[in-house]
Amino acid sequence: MWKALRRGRGACRRGRGCDRVLRRIDYTIPPEYDGRKVLHFLRGSAGCSYSLVRSLKTFEDGILLNGVRTRTIDRVKEGDRLTITLHENPKEAQLFDSPVPVLYEDDDLIVFDKPAKMACHPAKSMQQGTLANVFAAHCARIGAAAPCRILNRMDKDTTGAVVIAKNAFAAAALTGKIDKTYLAVIPGVISPPSGVVDAPIGQPDRTDPRRAVLPDGKPARTGYETVFAGEWFSILRCTLYTGRTHQIRVHMAHLGHPLLGDTLYEGDLSEIGRQALHCAAVSFTHPVTGKAVRVESPLPKDMQKFEGQPVESC
Q1: What pLDDT score does 19 carry?
Q2: What is the model's pTM?
Q3: Sign of CA dihedral 177, 182, 187, 188
Q4: Hey, which CATH number is domain 179-275, 3.30.360.10, 3.40.50.2000, 3.30.2350.10, 3.20.20.30?
Q5: In this structure, which topology does domain 102-177+279-307 adopt according to CATH?
Q6: What is the pLDDT of residue 124?
Q7: What pLDDT score does 47 carry?
């Protein structure tokens, strides 16, 4: 169905100089697309967004049919070879060479094991020391260059698996399609022990970072399951069905069980110095190979004690 080629140098964008070729992907047209337009295949089987298709059209080698430049309105036949070439002109980012573990990497994606106290993206008050800076340093080490497209952003003090797309195709194909499993530690025992919190979330005060359950908030659904219940705390496995800011933190506080260490939502700080929330696993269908991928992140040291296990390296 497809064949992916390594990075190289490619044709120039018309009137805009040369950009770097990050990825070429070859597809063989299957029977069900015989006689249909190139656009239908790109939007359907290939999973390209409209914006990516528009970008591909601006390059001489952006979309090739049997090695020849083609239009998206042209029709394909079964067995034809369709090639897309992904170009990038990444902005320079400050490098931050920090030993953040890599849990998974291929030509299209990388999954970092983000530690606590590290933001995902730079901000006006923080230009260095973010995961985006770590990604830039990693790319420099391996002789690559790509914009940082984080697909599952998380709060500064939340730990665990963060997926970054290395090209626009992977980003478009996976946006909103990554299943995330979190482990959270709450005080007491929640009742019922498992369920779904379906409560809209909004921001009452734009000058205050806190969110809350509000009648006119955005839809938010969180699934949870108790995996351990102790005398004074419980460990929950949480699944996000939507992606609101602070979603798990807000929903647990709404139920009367703010995460341990989550001072923003009045959580108990005596046992851990940040919110006890960890992205333990991410799962997705690989945008190029079509294979199921699951990447797991071990519990960090400050959360291992809640399972009663010896503290070891992450």
Answers
A1: 56
A2: 0.80
A3: positive
A4: 3.30.2350.10
A5: Pseudouridine synthase (3.30.2350)
A6: 58
A7: 86
For the chain of 314 residues, list the mean pLDDT of each consecutive stretch of 10: 45 46 87 96 91 91 95 96 84 64 95 94 68 87 79 94 93 92 96 97 94 97 95 94 96 97 94 96 95 97 75 36
Residues 236 and 220: their CA atoms lie apart, in Å, by: 18
Q: Are 17 and 87 in contact (CB under 8 A)?
A: no
Label residue 65 left, alpha or beta by phi (over 0 means left) and psi (-120 to 50 means alpha): beta
Locate 297 and state its tokens: 């992140």
What proportions of the chain, in percent to the nearest 5, are helix, strand and coil? Answer: 15, 35, 50
Partner residues linked to 186 by β-bridges: 234
Tokens 């665990």 appear where?
A: 160
Q: For residue 39, which amino acid is it?
A: L
Burial class of 186 by CB neighbour count within 10 A (0 to 12, 13 to 18, 19+) = buried
Residue 126, CA distances (Å) to 117, 118, 283 in order: 12, 10, 30
- Do domains 102-177+279-307 and 179-275 share one topology? The answer is yes
Work out whether the CA dihedral 296, 298, 304, 308 comes out positive or negative: positive
Structural domain boundaries in the chain:
2-88, 102-177+279-307, 179-275
Q: Evaluate whether the domain defined by 2-88 bears CATH number 3.10.290.10.
A: yes
User: Annotated active-site positions, please?
Assistant: 155
| pLDDT for the residue numbered 2 | 47
The residue to which tokens 């110095």 are assigned = 273
DSSP state of 140: H
